[in-house]
């Protein structure tokens, strides 16, 4: 009951603060601006109390965004000094990327020793994953270049800052050479994410080729490293509210509220792009593979709802696997394609990353050629493999990649303010894409059961009860 009352109080204070702020903005002002200022801070105090009850990192990030924006608006000089909080958070995030990407890629490739046994099915699944994620990548690129959500941000306040950088002009040969590492320690130290990815892939292939007695200890070590880095990410994300609050206070103090309008445009762009991906890519694939759409939608409704509500693909995995079996996909195909897809078939995440990366460049005023955009999103597509279950993994990947392309980091913190809303949609699309992938691979293998009727436990129980009654008589 206390929670509901507090929620109502928050909504009421929000309405009052909004009305007073609008009225004081009139010329001449209807009320003293101090009245609106007090109303806004009372609203923030109520939101903080609500956040204390919720104890959710996502909710705390939203609250810190509101507080940071208010501090940036009311105390711009002091707000600029809070940039140190975002810098600390950024440094911590950058320490995650190399070991996390290396460990997850090695486990994802070398850990699937069954790929040789699975044979053609594994190859078909991987080809399907890469083709579909490439479509997602191009739809994301087209959407952000069409809406130009990042353009129009007033950067006059940060023009003299050292973080305002420009992309380095490179020839085709330079770009190709830049992909391959000459010293892995140097690549990690310089934050060259793509070079770490290439090293991890080749390392994983070599690991998969050695004898079991040599492969197993190294695989166990990389699995342990992967688990430790997941926990490391969780610990760092506890600092996310402070980092986001400091970054937004700095941004609003320097440039006002204009960047938040750009973030809202990005949110609309993402939802529109994801809808286009579903209608233009996934629906035609389902029709070509002769997947019964009505039954498919009914089967995935529950796992997709779980993914949307929890923003966790992992939370929806057990129910999604069960739903695909109920649709008529054999268990052995579900057991291979679904978990592998969680590493290699992140349609929603790939689309989101392509949008967000170009948004950063647009907000920073850096003009990227189509070739440079392709290289950047290709890098993001590779580095995103295997980290679907990590909270805020997209932030980690995005920050590291834009830094390696010599772009500033401040636009990423604008994105983080609405990341929870974007995370729900992209996670739901990830689950839809993986569910469809299992059905398509089953059809491709000729093993999809069109008229499959799942056994109903209730009926089985009724039959067992009647048999028991007859035996008793």
From TrEMBL:
Swiss-Prot/TrEMBL GO biological process terms: dicarboxylic acid transport
Database matches in InterPro entries: Na-dicarboxylate_symporter, Na-dicarboxylate_symporter_CS, Na:dicarbo_symporter_sf
Membrane topology, from the record: Multi-pass membrane protein
One Pfam family from the record: SDF
Gene Ontology CC: plasma membrane
Cellular localization per UniProt: Cell membrane
GO-annotated molecular function: symporter activity
PANTHER family: PROTON/GLUTAMATE-ASPARTATE SYMPORTER, PROTON_GLUTAMATE-ASPARTATE SYMPORTER
This protein's name: Sodium:dicarboxylate symporter
């Amino acid at each position: 009951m206390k929670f509901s009352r507090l929620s109502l109080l928050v909504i009421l204070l929000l309405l009052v603060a909004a009305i007073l702020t609008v009225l004081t903005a009139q010329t001449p002002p209807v009320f003293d601006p101090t009245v609106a200022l007090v109303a806004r801070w009372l609203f923030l105090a109520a939101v903080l109390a609500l956040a204390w009850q919720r104890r959710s990192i996502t909710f705390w990030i939203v609250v810190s965004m509101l507080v940071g924006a208010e501090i940036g608006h009311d105390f711009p000089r002091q707000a600029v000094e809070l940039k140190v909080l975002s810098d600390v958070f950024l440094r911590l995030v950058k320490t995650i990327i190399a070991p996390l990407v290396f460990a997850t890629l090695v486990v994802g490739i070398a850990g699937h020793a069954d790929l040789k046994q699975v044979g053609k099915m594994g190859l078909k699944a991987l080809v399907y994953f890469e083709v579909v994620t490439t479509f997602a990548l191009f739809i994301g690129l087209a959407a952000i270049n069409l809406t130009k959500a990042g353009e129009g941000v007033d950067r006059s306040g940060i023009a003299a800052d050292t973080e305002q950088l420009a992309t380095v002009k490179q020839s085709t040969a330079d770009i190709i050479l830049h992909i391959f590492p000459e010293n892995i320690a140097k690549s990690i130290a310089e934050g060259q994410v793509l070079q770490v990815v290439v090293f991890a892939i080749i390392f994983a292939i070599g690991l998969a080729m050695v004898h079991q007695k040599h492969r197993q200890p190294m695989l166990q070590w990389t699995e342990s490293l992967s688990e430790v880095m997941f926990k490391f990410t969780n610990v760092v994300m506890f600092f996310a509210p402070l980092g986001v609050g400091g970054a937004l206070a700095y941004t609003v103090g320097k440039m006002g509220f204009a960047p938040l309008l750009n973030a809202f445009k990005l949110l609309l762009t993402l939802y529109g792009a994801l809808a286009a991906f579903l209608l233009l890519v996934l629906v035609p694939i389902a029709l070509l593979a002769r997947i019964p759409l009505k039954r498919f939608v009914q089967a995935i409704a529950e796992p997709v709802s779980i993914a949307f509500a929890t923003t966790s693909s992992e939370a929806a995995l057990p129910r999604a696997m069960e739903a695909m079996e109920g649709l008529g996909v054999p268990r052995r195909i579900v057991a291979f394609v679904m978990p592998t897809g969680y590493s290699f078939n992140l349609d929603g995440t790939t689309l989101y990353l392509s949008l967000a990366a170009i948004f950063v460049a647009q907000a920073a005023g850096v003009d990227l050629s189509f070739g440079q955009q392709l290289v950047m999103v290709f890098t993001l597509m590779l580095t995103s493999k295997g980290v679907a279950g990590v909270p805020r993994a997209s932030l980690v990947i995005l920050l590291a990649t834009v830094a390696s392309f010599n772009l500033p980091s401040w636009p990423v913190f604008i994105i983080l303010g609405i990341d929870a809303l974007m995370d729900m949609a992209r996670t739901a699309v990830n689950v839809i894409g993986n569910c469809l992938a299992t059905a398509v691979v089953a059809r491709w293998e000729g093993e999809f059961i069109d008229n499959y009727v799942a056994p109903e436990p209730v009926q089985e129980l009724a039959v067992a009860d009647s048999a028991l009654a007859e035996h008793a008589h």
